[in-house]
What we know:
Largest sheet: 8 strands, mixed
Radius of gyration: 21 Å
Low-confidence stretches: none
Mean pLDDT: 92
Amino acid sequence: MTPTIAFLGTGNMGAALLAGILAAGEDHVARDRVHATTKSEESARALAERLDVPATSLESEPDANREAVDGADFVFLGVKPWMMRGTLADLAGALPARAVIVSMAAGFSAAQIQELAPDNPVVRIMPNTPSALGRGVIALAAGEGVDEDQRAQLSALLSGAGEVFEVSEEQIGAMTGISGSGVAYFFYLAEALVAAGVELGLDEETARGMVVQTAVGAGALLADGGDPAALRNAVTSKGGTTHAAITALADADFEAVVARAATAARDRAAEMEAENQQG
């Protein structure tokens, strides 16, 4: 039998992940065994229409979260980190025994969750937004109370959303730095390239189309097993145009800037965890 799943606080990231999970097919999860909650009635209606799953809002039903977890095998928590304590406190007495709590929150440790739900095994995951297209990266750190069947079932569910990487909880911050937040870095680069194209004389639509297809092509080469350095060197002839561009990036300390960005994301996740510990 496919599992019963509750998605609580289903915002943009939660909806993206749920869309990917549903794409795994009926063998893994049935739509009528999924119940999602949102904050507003409007967002609940939109989610139900988009994904064809039952969705309830806290705005119209204050006990929506408690009702959603009834009989659940997996309870996905998509609420903001600062809302975790209140959400888990509200679920006291309603969580089924042995239901696996799956947290998507950055900066809120498994130990903190375990304090608030001592009878339930805990898994921390960190997905990114391409999960909605089945192209996501999902880091999965399972706690000690999660058995092999639960781990395997959860991995199978998440596989519809993208590639699952099992990591230790200590490595979640590193994943946040390079992949969880990393999608935005690629978008930022795309923004900058479009702007550069316009500055060099292209119209914005043409520049955007070129940048998008360049990203798609580069991604395909990487996904085909290409080594990033080897692929770069293959198009960087000494004295050529690409060499001039790469030299300009290197002179601007490009690698160090990227490393600082990834480290900043990781460190902010650690700061959030400390802040939530105090809360």
